[in-house]
């Protein structure tokens, strides 16, 4: 049986790394042929051809291998398995072409996620993880280090374009977005490099994702150096993250320092170093790659016929033992180890296929699952390749799961060495989906050695929220302050949170603080003013009472039942004092006392005035002939009883109201948002309305009676003054209703206190000021004859 590593001899731009990969095939095949336990009695063969990283070359090489029709390569037997190609695009083409023929392929470097589709690529296997995992790794690194604004420069093929697609899928729903995507196509590399460098130079993104072949990356980075572009953090794909060609380029020492890369896992190949040191063109005379390597390394031609070369002939003593280049460097075998594993996977599949016939050497015992070396079909080999399971020389389990191997990556960081050169240093590992990074071991770009910041917009500070800009990616946003009553206490918040009901946001909207409790207190200016007025009114009432007591035997005091006058003064004093109950922090008892004291005090006051008005009317009507008996029916006892009856009705209303639905303290949160208004809720609106309505009814009746008695023939007609007092009283309380409803918070309490004080002062002044004027300033008029109008 023969396997093939696809290469085609006529290519330019010689690269050293593929020479080492080709030698891994040679070494593995020779090692297997020496192994008495693996494929005993079977000798493997190989043929190496150069694909030149172009699909036409790959296709030509593949068809020449499977048809055995290319005499140039001297292939005498069709191959049953192909190891290659390195490029994902070439593998896609080859797999679709070779799939109908059931010829299996094992790639060592084609990592495109699309090749995981077993329905489209049933004959494809690989010893490198899918790009899905390294794209996920880069997305995880972007999230880990807070990079939300990332640029991308990728190969213009399935390898690069699908890697960007996976990166976008992994970051979907996060705040990470791509600032730009530029592609590099080998056929127009100079033009694409110029466009990509311009995008990097113009963009504010400081982190650049690069999925491309290392030769293209070198041209791209060199162009950035020529443009003096610095301070960029590159995320390298596995194809160039460990490239010795880039690391050894002095031009790139500054711009590439700090690069973070996903690298194929590293593993040693015992004996491979000695194999490389023993290489001689004379040992492998048909190896074109080895001949070109000798010419590039030693400057001589190993050909026996030197006329075919312009170089002097080699002496035959040249050796790679003292040469240091990409071919001889076996300190970090990554892709080379993948090639080595691919050969061993093919060998174990073949061993499994032949195992049931080889012990006795009989071909007659063959079944559908077994075969002989001369009758192996690609279809049989393909089926056994799916079931490959063996332990490597390093003690690791190797198997294919739907053509894939478990995802294991090294994470590397490009750091400056003692001589200023670049070296890649392992800083972590990816196993499956678990990302492990030693942050302290990372060397970042620039002299500050700090994690680069790559954001379209800086994170919104606490107290603000993100507002996406229309037409821009999600990572580009404005920072808007939180509204009143809302807060955000973390950086980069996408929304503001509402404060709890009893709290309000502080001035910078970063936290909720308890709302200021507001009520009409005795310590504030408004409370002091109202208290002063109420106390003044009470003291004035007391002073009037003292004057009346001192002059209680005078006609003006004795007129119209002096008991009612003293009772009226007492009720006015209570009216003034009840306003003080409305000031201060509301409590269950103060809320009940407010309306009860107010309602009963004013009913007592209006009842006294109403009875006095009735007395005036009865007194004048009893003076008419035949009406002398009227006063007998409305004497002092009846007057006191009437006041008591009117007042008891209000007491009953208040008692029922306070028993079933009393006023209670209430935290009003809806008037002033930053404050809690502590107020008394009336409880039952019907009860409150009955209290006010009853006061209004007595006042209206009193006003009407006083209005009818205002023109009675007396020098001192008290009904006239009662009319004025009731007019003021009604005007105050009619205007109170709309003012009370429209006043917020503590000002509604202020309006009610003002109405109480204003109406109380109106009653006190209108009823008692004229009497005090006569008593104190016109004592000569304080006679019965004057009051009855018998003297002028």
TrEMBL record:
It comes from the Eukaryota. Residues 526-791 form the G-protein coupled receptors family 3 profile domain. It holds the Pfam family ANF_receptor. SUPFAM superfamilies: Periplasmic binding protein-like I. It is found in: Cell membrane. GO terms for molecular function: G protein-coupled receptor activity. Coiled coil: none annotated. Keywords: Cell membrane, G-protein coupled receptor, Glycoprotein, Membrane, Receptor, Signal, Transducer, Transmembrane, Transmembrane helix. It is a multi-pass membrane protein. Belongs to the G-protein coupled receptor 3 family. This is G-protein coupled receptors family 3 profile domain-containing protein. It comes from Electrophorus electricus (Electric eel).
């Amino acid at each position: 049986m023969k396997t093939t590593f696809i290469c085609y001899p006529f290519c330019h731009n010689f690269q050293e790394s593929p020479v080492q990969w080709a030698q891994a095939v040679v070494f593995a095949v020779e090692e297997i042929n020496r192994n008495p336990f693996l494929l005993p009695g079977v000798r493997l063969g190989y043929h190496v051809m150069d694909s030149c990283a172009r699909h036409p070359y790959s296709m030509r090489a593949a068809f020449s291998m499977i048809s055995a029709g290319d005499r140039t390569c001297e292939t005498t037997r069709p191959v049953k398995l192909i190891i290659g190609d390195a490029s994902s695009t070439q593998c896609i083409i080859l797999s679709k072409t070779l799939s109908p023929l059931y010829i299996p392929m094992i790639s060592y470097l084609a990592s495109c996620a699309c090749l995981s589709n077993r329905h489209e690529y049933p004959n494809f296997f690989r010893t490198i993880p899918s790009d899905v995992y390294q794209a996920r790794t880069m997305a995880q690194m972007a999230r880990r280090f807070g990079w939300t604004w990332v640029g991308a420069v990728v190969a213009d093929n399935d390898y690069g374009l699908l890697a960007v697609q996976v990166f976008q899928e992994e970051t979907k729903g996060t705040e990470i977005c791509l600032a730009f995507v530029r592609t590099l196509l080998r056929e127009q590399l100079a033009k694409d490099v110029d466009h990509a460098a311009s995008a990097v130079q113009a963009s504010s993104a400081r982190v650049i994702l690069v999925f491309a072949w290392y030769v293209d990356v070198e041209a791209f980075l060199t162009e950035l150096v020529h443009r003096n572009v610095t301070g960029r953090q590159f995320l390298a794909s596995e194809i160039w993250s460990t490239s010795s060609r880039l690391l050894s380029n002095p031009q790139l020492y500054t711009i590439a320092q700090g690069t973070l890369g996903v690298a194929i896992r590293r593993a040693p190949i015992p004996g491979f170093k000695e194999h490389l040191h023993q290489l001689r063109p004379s040992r492998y005379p048909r190896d074109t790659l080895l001949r070109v390597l000798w010419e590039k390394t030693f400057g001589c031609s190993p050909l026996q016929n030197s006329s075919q070369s312009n170089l002097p002939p080699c002496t035959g003593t040249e050796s790679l033992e003292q040469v240091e280049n990409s071919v001889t460097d076996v300190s970090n075998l990554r892709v080379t180890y993948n090639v080595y594993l691919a050969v061993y996977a093919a060998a174990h599949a073949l061993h499994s296929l032949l195992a049931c016939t080889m012990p006795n050497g009989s071909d007659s015992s063959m079944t559908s699952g077994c075969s002989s070396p001369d009758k192996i079909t690609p279809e049989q080999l393909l089926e056994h390749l799916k079931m490959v399971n063996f332990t490597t020389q390093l003690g690791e389990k190797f198997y294919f799961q739907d053509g894939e191997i478990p995802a294991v990556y090294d994470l590397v960081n490009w750091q400056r060495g003692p001589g200023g050169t670049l070296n890649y240093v392992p800083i972590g590992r990816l196993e499956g989906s678990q990302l492990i990074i030693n942050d302290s071991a990372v060397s970042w770009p620039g002299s500050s050695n700090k994690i680069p910041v790559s954001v379209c917009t800086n994170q919104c500070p606490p107290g603000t929220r993100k507002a996406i800009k229309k037409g821009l990616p999600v990572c580009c946003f404005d920072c808007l302050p939180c509204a009143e009553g809302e807060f955000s206490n973390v950086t980069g918040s996408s929304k503001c949170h509402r404060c709890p009901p009893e709290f309000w946001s502080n001035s910078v909207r970063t936290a909720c603080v308890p709302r200021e409790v507001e009520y009409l207190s005795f310590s504030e200016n408004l409370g002091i003013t109202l208290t002063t007025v109420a106390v003044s009114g009470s003291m004035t009432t007391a002073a009037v009472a003292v004057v009346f007591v001192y002059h209680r035997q005078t006609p003006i005091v004795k007129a119209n039942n002096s008991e009612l006058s003293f009772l009226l003064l007492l009720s006015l004093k209570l009216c003034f004092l009840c306003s003080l109950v409305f000031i201060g922090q509301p409590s269950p008892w103060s809320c009940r006392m407010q309306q009860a004291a107010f309602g009963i005090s004013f009913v007592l006051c209006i009842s006294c005035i109403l009875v006095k008005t009735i007395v005036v009317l009865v007194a004048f009507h009893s003076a008419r002939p035949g009406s002398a008996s009227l006063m007998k029916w409305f004497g002092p006892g009846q007057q006191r009883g009437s006041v008591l009856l009117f007042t008891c009705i209000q007491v009953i209303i208040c008692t029922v109201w306070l028993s079933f639905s009393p006023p209670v303290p209430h935290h009003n949160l809806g008037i002033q948002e930053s404050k809690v208004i502590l107020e008394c809720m009336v409880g039952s609106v019907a009860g409150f309305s009955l209290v006010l309505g009853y006061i209004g009814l007595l006042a209206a009746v009193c006003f009407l009676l006083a209005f009818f008695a205002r023109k009675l023939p007396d020098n001192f007609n008290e009904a006239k003054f009662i009319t004025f007092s009731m007019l003021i009283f009604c005007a105050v309380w009619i205007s109170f209703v709309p003012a009370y409803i429209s006043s917020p918070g503590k000002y509604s309490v202020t309006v009610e206190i003002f109405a109480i004080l204003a109406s109380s002062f109106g009653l006190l002044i209108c009823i008692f000021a004229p009497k005090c004027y006569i008593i104190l300033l016109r004592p000569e008029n304080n006679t019965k004859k004057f009051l009855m109008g018998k003297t002028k």
